[in-house]
Amino acid sequence: MSQKTKAWTAKLGSDLLHALPQISWNLFLIALGSALCAVGIKGILVPRQFLSGGFTGLALIIHYVSPDLALGVIYFVLNIPNFAFGWRLVGRRFFFYSVAGMFIFSAAIQAINLTLPVYDQLLSALLAGIVIGVGSGIILKSLGSAGGTDILSVILLKVLSIRLGSTILAFNGIILVASAFLFSLEKALYTLIYLYITSSMVNLVVTGLSQRKAVYIISPKWREISQRIMEEIQRGVTIIKGQGGFSGQEQQILYTVITFRELSRLKQMVKSEDPEAFVVVSETLEVMGQRVGNQPHW
Hints:
Layout: H1 3-48, H2 54-65, H3 71-89, H4 92-111, H5 121-141, H6 149-160, H7 164-182, H8 185-206, E1 212-218, H9 222-233, E2 238-243, E3 250-259, H10 263-273, E4 278-283
Antiparallel strand pairs: 1-3, 1-4, 2-3
């Protein structure tokens, strides 16, 4: 073995050893999320004959029509063309984690067999939405997914900044309409409730308290407020020159981006300096940047 080959092998081994904790953590998140999703699917959806959206919904429809076909195997087979599509548009790291996620998710569906003791249809839909939504969110908190519409959701998030849960809900709606013609409308409506709860839980788990708020502040005491934001909250402030539409006077507009947990402090701070200050708080979808950024690492 040449010196160059030895050096390359040593570097590869060092890189793998350094990345092992991160790889283990991401695989743990995928496994935990897959187990929760499998509990919701096998413990609620299948016993109640509920439908679903995306690839899971397609797998359930095929399973209901042909019960002899294993649900996990159906899901795995349906994902093969999906991953062929994702190979070109999704990052390699996300792709390989998602391949592992597909195997883990399919295996979890096959391995877990239980029925949760909830018999009311509405409560079953709510519980399924919570359990599967949390599980899907945990999977997406990793650097991969379990396949299915998750890959499509991440592509749209990266390209068009469309929220993960919103994409899942829209895509699932298409499947749901088609499924309503094959099964009862009542089952489809209960499934719609479940899907809405799922999308809400995905957004909550993935963004949660990491959501950022954009704040505009108009006050004659803009200097004092700006200084306190930078010193006490340690966030940057942009000063925008403006002009009052009625008075015609020049005004300074403060613009800053803070975390959800810092919002209360900021409002108290502004109120203490100027109770008459005009403050506008708006939600942000994504923020890129080292200090206050919250973009997922996909």
